[in-house]
Structures are given as C-alpha cells and as structure tokens.
Specification:
The complex is a heterodimer of chains A (393) and B (380).
Chain A: H1 7-23, H2 26-33, H3 40-53, H4 71-84, H5 91-104, H6 107-118, E1 124-127, E2 143-147, E3 150-157, E4 168-174, E5 186-192, E6 198-203, E7 212-223, E8 227-228, H7 234-243, H8 252-268, E9 270-271, E10 274-275, H9 280-307, H10 315-339, H11 357-360, H12 362-369, H13 379-390
Chain B: H1 7-23, H2 26-34, H3 41-49, H4 68-81, H5 87-101, H6 104-116, E1 121-124, E2 140-144, E3 147-158, E4 165-171, E5 182-188, E6 194-200, E7 206-218, E8 222-223, H7 230-265, E9 267-268, E10 271-272, H8 277-305, H9 310-339, H10 349-362, H11 367-376
Parallel strand pairs in B: 1-4
Antiparallel strand pairs in B: 2-3, 3-7, 4-5, 5-8, 6-7, 9-10
Helix pairs in contact in B: 1-4, 4-7, 5-6, 5-7, 7-8, 7-9, 7-10, 8-9, 9-10, 9-11
The chains are: A alpha+beta (393), B alpha+beta (380).
Chain lengths: 393, 380
C-alpha cells in the first residue's frame, strides 16, 4: 500500500504543473482568485489553449483528439488545473454532448460537431431541466412535432447554465404521444441557438450574478438530421450522458486552494486579541474541514485505483459529489464567517475605487455555492442513487 | 499510488478472516466472555501459530518486522469479530515499547516469548486525571541501590489482568507534564507491592487498575535511557492509535452490513423498512462515513510505518483519529437507531459493536484531544 503517487504519476503531475505555470494566463488566474466572473472569451481562450496542447478531451477516442490518459492522469490534470486557479472547462460540449455523439452519433454528426467542440468553436449548453421537471427529469413537457424533414419544437427549458453564451443547445424533447410512459417518447435534439423562435431570458440569482437562464422555444424548426439516436430513444441517451464518467466531481484541487486562502485570510483577522486562526472554536471547525478534505482526496484516489482495471464507476461518483460539494459549501461559509462584519457589503453605489471587492465577494460566493448541493442531481438524488445502485435498497 | 494489499498481506487477511469466521462467531465470543478467564488461550495459541503475534516484532527478536499496514487487515478482522484477546495490549503496545525503547538484550529476552504466545504484556500509562496526556505522570520511580522503588497509581491498564509483565511509564525526574524525566520500567506482574484491581470494560475486554506501594524492580528493568522515554511512548501510542483506526473500520463495516441487512428484511406497514427514503439516506451517509474512515485508517497506518518526521506522523494520526472518532459515534448511533428496539438488546451483536465503537472513539484520545494535537503539530 502506498498513498503517494508513483514516480511516473509525480512526473506527469510535474509536467502538468509546470505547463500551467507557463501557460495559464495571469488575467484568468486573477479572475479565479478574485471570485470574478469569466466572459465567454475567457472560457474559450482557456479551452483553445488546452486544445492546442492536446489536453482538452483526454477521454475521447484518439481519432477525435483523445490522448489516452488513464483515469488517474485525468484526475491529476483536473486537480492541478483546479489548484492552479484555471477557469473551469465547460462540460456541456466536452463531457456531455461530445461523448453522446461519440457513442450514438451518425458519422455525419460526428464529423460536423466533434472537431468544433474540440477546438472550442462552438459553445454548448444543456436543455434538460424544465419548470416542472427538476429531479424528475422524465416528466419533461417540451414537445417536438415531426413535420417533413424537420421537427417543430415548443416549450421551455430552465436553469440553462450559460445559455447566453451558447451557440448550440442539446435538448431532451417529447416526440411520442401522450399515452407513453414517462421515459418513452423522448428524443435528443441538437438545436442551433440562432434558430428563429428561441428566446433566452436571464434568471437572476441571489448572489446577483448571471449564469443561468430560461430558454423559450416557439415553433422552432430543427432539421431531423440533428436528432441523435432514434426517435424515442432520448432517455437512453440521457442516461448515458448522466452516467458518463466524471471522477473530478469532488473538486479536491479547487478546495485545497480555497482552504489555503481561508487559512491565510483567517490569520489576518482578529478574534479576542489573537489571530482568528488561533481561536480554538474557529480552528477546530477548520481542522475538521481539512480532515474531511484529506479523507475525500484519499477516498477519491482509492476509487480511481479501482477504476484502473477498467470498471465503470457507479455509486462512487455520487459519494464524491455529496462530500465534495459539502466541503465546497463549508469553505465558503467559513470564509464568510472569517470576514465577520466585512462580509455584509454587497455592491458599491457610485465611486467604487476604494470599495473592498474581495470581502464583498465572500457572502455572494456563499450564496452562490448553495447551488452545488442542488445542481447536477441534488445531493438527495445522489443518496437515492447510492441507496439503489450501491446498497440495493 | 496503490491501495492494494501485497500478496502476503492478502494471504494473511484471508486466513485471519477464515479463522475469525470459523472460531470467533458471535456465539463463541459469548462463551469466551462468560468464561472465568474472559479470554481464550486457544485463540491466543492460534494467533501465535498464524504468526500474528510475531508479525510486528523485529526480525532479530523472533518477529517478522512488519508494520501497521501489515496489521490493517488483522485489525479489521478483530474489529469485525469484536475479539477481546489482548492483541493490541500485548503486540500493539507492550511489545512495541520493548522493541523501540529496550536494549538488544531486553528484546532477545522477552520478544520471542511474546511471538510464541508464551508471554503477554500490558502498558500502564493512564493515571487518575491524566486523561490522554502521556507526559502527565505522577507515578514516581526512585533510584535506590541496585534498582527502583515505584509509588503511584495507574488506571485502565488494557489487558492488565492477563499480563505477565507491565511496561510502566514513571517519572524519574521533573514533574507535571515535563517531557524530560519520563522513563519506562518493565515490571513483573507478581512483584510485591503492586495491588491489582481487575474489571471488565464496556466492550467486554478486560483491564485493571494498579497501585504501586514501594514496589521494587531491579535496575535492569529500565527500558532505554532513564528520563528519555517520552518520544518512544508517543510513537508507540501513535502506532496503537493507527491500529485501532483499522479496528474501527472493521467494526464500522460490520455495523453497516448488519444494518443494511436489517433494512432489507425488517417489515413494517407491509414493506421492508429499507424502502423508506428517510432510512435510505441515513444508510447512505453511514456508507460514506465508512469510506472516509477507511481512507483515514490507511493514512494513519502508512504514516506510522513511514519513518517520516514526528510532526508529520502526529498530524496524520491525529487527523485520522478525529475522523475515526466522529465515524465511530456516527455509525454506532445510527446502527442502533435503525435497528430500533432490537439494537438496544444485548442479544444482538450490533449492540456489542456499538459498545466497542463507543470506546474506540475515545481510546488514545477523543476528537477534541486530537483536534488540539493536530493544531499544535504545526497545522497552520
């Protein structure tokens, strides 16, 4: 038993680390550590840098640009990016639509869409959730009616992350008749966001930021050739997409970086005549959090070690999601707590030259991170998955 | 990175598991507990035959030179079966102190007998009010001619009723919690001037209190250098802590398996209670706790084997014990709750696992103790 990376794994990590040191643009890193919003250009710039390096889609087949990294290498890469403060890689094209096309797409769909996803030419978003369909995804109502060589789509999607940046959206739509069982009669469509009849409306969240949207479809014409897999087979595609291997769900590297910042910040705040970090009550909360993160990083590596044999991950991903998001949330909560009264300011009125942006960003960040236990399958849904898949309940 | 056991470790794990399943089923354990001795010589003899007692002892003193990682699967099996024999007391504590602090002669004289199962040891360390502070020793050993006179009191000496020898932490100089002046003496259990009070603990294991009234031991009883034993004590207690972390993993696994089985078979309102989401989610959280505890036990065992610096070892062991202590409480309490009234009964093994987990949570320091120790080991 050896909890440390092997010599080869360390060498790989060092290669990634030094590349990041030389190639991660400082403006992007500053945005990450300043809790600033990324523009579409920021996200695509980072995407293209990695594409040029051949590191953007490691798990894809080699003919489409995959590089053959094993799960441990992919994990190391993702964690190093997180730790270095790189912008996130938006998963909708790379980790969702791409793998779906590779699995179910026609040759024409593959050669049309995959290279553009790979090179960061199209920005994708995900049309899954609807106002009445959250955790119960299969109850979706957006309808696509076949009319000659195209479908006519009517309905509404919601919580559509970064739809305001997107060129394309992949959607689950209802193509069957009303008597079908919920999971039947669903199809998977690729829709150009420039198609007439699509309206994107921002959903403002409590932190004031814009990342999610409502997307409305009014008689939107979608060519039949943009349907992936058979008509009515959308649920199969959806399940494949949701179960597609995502082992970076714990975000250990990002949480490590945030934990270090929390310690630095807490060392500069005062409590009862000493640095806050030496306050036993605060310190113990911090230690418990650090221990939980240490445990999760080892647990994550144990799961990866098991995957090297080629087994597909099951309930493990859900465990990592639950604990990983709980840790992320606790980090934002302790950071806000460390700021004390300075956490209250939110938005400057007028001249902002002397406004302390950093401390003012902590409470909104706490607000924003409440989403992590809700999105991508709420943590309660994850517990259902573990109960069913892992425990046989 | 590699989380697998080596081939040897796997073989050992399998044979221990087989033995425990065959000879240490819950009914057998009940008989052992009810016997006058409160332990089984036969089981002890089998441990010796299987090489478990020799495993972590130095190769030049009848052992195999193994470490905590080699013992992980053994400790897991012990935790799963709730073994009451003094494995931890003899091999994890007493023999380790001799191996790490003793002279070559002391090792050769004592450890082969431990490896063969002929000698049992116990570590007398805790005192009234000392809690988990290893340096807070009021028991004094006064040098007098060719030996020492010991005066003082020791509490909760694990495996003490069965021990042939006690390793006793004493103060030969200084006072309070001074690091300097702490010594270890190897004391024959029959030494005049020792009053022993034996008892059964909450988890069925046995321990004793010791009162020393001028008990006299020869100068050769000193392990290592006079006044310089604290570092060895601390490293051995860290070693033993890593072992109980692994033991906890085995006990937690049993508690989870038993609870899951109960959820699937116990019916109320015409359905298995495991179909209720409120209970499913609690079972899931117990499962996650198990995985996290297992990770931290691995960390503790590799850290005490690593030979890295002491601060790093302390941090790793304390981090593990914080997590393990929380995990012991979480899983034991939930296991009883999810078993309902049945979980409260002596009849069900899960209540015995509850008792052992309750004690492991506090053995060698509770979460609060290790939170403080983690911070003092250079946390920030």
């Amino acid at each position: 038993m050896d909890l440390n990376y092997s010599t080869e794994e360390v060498a790989f990590r060092d290669t990634v680390r030094s590349w990041l040191r030389d190639n991660l643009p400082d403006e992007l890193r500053q945005k990450t550590v300043g809790y600033d919003d990324y523009t579409r250009d920021d996200l695509m710039r980072w995407h293209r840098l990695l594409a040029r390096q051949g590191w953007i889609a490691p798990s894809w087949p080699e003919e489409w640009g995959g590089n053959g990294w094993n799960p441990v290498q992919r994990y190391i890469f993702e964690e190093e990016c997180g730790y270095a403060g790189a912008p996130p890689l938006i998963p909708f094209g790379l980790a969702m639509c791409g793998p779906v096309l590779i699995r179910f797409g026609t040759p024409a769909q593959k050669s049309r869409f995959l290279p553009r996803i790979y090179h960061g030419e199209d920005f994708w978003c995900q049309g899954y959730s609807e106002p009445g369909s959250g955790s119960d995804l299969a109850s979706l109502k957006t309808r696509a009616v076949r009319s000659g060589d195209h479908y006519v789509v009517n309905g509404q999607k919601t919580w559509t992350t970064l739809a305001h940046f997107a060129d394309w959206i992949f959607c689950l739509v209802r193509t069957g008749d009303a008597n079908d069982k919920k999971q039947e009669g669903i199809s998977f469509l690729l829709i150009d966001m420039k198609t007439p009849g699509i309206t994107v409306r921002p959903l403002k969240l409590m932190d004031g930021g814009r990342e999610v949207n409502e997307v409305f479809f009014d008689d939107v014409k979608v060519p039949v050739e943009n349907r992936v897999h058979d008509e009515g087979a959308g649920w199969t595609v959806a399940k494949y997409l949701l179960s597609h291997e995502r082992m970076n769900t714990a975000r250990i590297g990002t949480s490590r970086r945030e934990l270090e910042r929390l310690k630095e910040f807490a060392a500069r705040q005062s409590s009862g005549g000493r640095p806050l970090i030496e306050d036993p009550r605060f310190r113990d909360r911090l230690t418990r959090l650090e221990v939980e993160l240490t445990a999760l990083s080892i647990t994550n590596l144990r799961f990866l070690d098991q995957l090297r044999g080629g087994r597909t991950p099951g309930a493990e991903v859900s465990m990592l999601k639950i604990r990983g998001t709980e840790i992320q949330q606790m980090l934002t909560e302790l950071m806000m707590q460390a700021a004390g009264p300075l956490a209250a300011p939110f938005e400057p009125l007028g001249d902002a030259a002397d406004f302390d942006l950093f401390t003012a960003g902590l409470a909104p960040r706490y607000c924003n991170f409440r989403k992590t236990s809700i999105y991508a399958g709420s943590n309660e849904i994850q517990r259902n998955i573990i109960a069913k898949m892992g425990l046989g309940l | 990175m590699n989380f697998d056991y080596s081939e040897e470790q796997q073989l050992l794990a399998e044979s221990v598991r087989r033995f425990v399943a065959r000879d240490y089923a819950f009914e057998n354990r009940k008989k052992i507990l009810a016997s006058p001795a409160g332990m089984s010589d036969e089981v002890w003899g089998t441990f010796a035959q299987m090489g478990l007692l020799a495993l972590p002892l130095p190769a030049d003193a009848g052992g195999f030179g193994g470490g905590a990682v080699d013992l992980m699967s053994v400790m897991e099996a012990i935790g799963e079966a709730l073994v009451v024999e003094p494995f931890l007391a003899t091999v994890g504590l007493g023999a380790q102190l001799v191996a790490r602090a003793g002279t070559e002669e002391q090792k050769r004289n004592l450890l082969p007998a431990v490896a063969e199962g002929a000698a049992k040891l116990a570590f007398a360390c805790t005192e009234p009010g000392s809690r988990y502070d290893l340096a807070r020793i009021a028991t004094r050993a006064r040098r007098d001619g060719a030996g020492y006179f010991i005066n003082g009191e020791k509490r909760v000496v694990l495996g003490g009723p069965w021990a042939d020898r006690f390793v006793v932490s004493v103060r030969t100089a200084g006072g309070g919690t001074d690091a300097h002046g702490v010594s270890l003496l190897l004391v024959d259990a029959n030494t005049p001037g020792i009053k022993r009070t034996d008892y059964v603990m909450l988890d069925g294991q046995r321990a004793c209190d010791l009162r020393f009234d001028g008990a006299r031991v020869p100068a050769g009883a000193l392990l290592g250098h006079e006044g310089e034993a604290l570092a060895a004590i601390e490293s051995v207690v860290d070693f033993a802590t890593a072992l109980v972390c692994a033991e906890a993993v085995g006990a937690i696994r049993y508690a989870n398996e038993a609870t899951l089985e109960y959820l699937k078979t116990r019916k109320q309102f015409g359905v298995p209670i495991g179909s209720f989401q409120a209970l499913q989610h609690r079972m899931v959280d117990m499962t996650i706790t198990y995985e996290q505890a297992r990770s931290m036990a691995s960390l503790a065992c590799t850290a005490v084997d690593g030979g890295g610096d002491a601060a790093e070892r302390r941090r790793a062991v304390s981090a593990a014990k914080i997590k393990i202590a929380d995990a012991c409480r979480h899983v034991s309490q939930e296991a009883v709750q999810l078993h309902g009234g049945m979980g409260m009964t002596d009849e069900l093994k899960v209540s015995h696992t509850f008792r052992r987990l309750t004690l492991i949570a506090q053995q060698f320091g509770d979460a609060d103790h290790h939170l403080a120790r983690y911070a003092s080991a250079g946390h920030h």
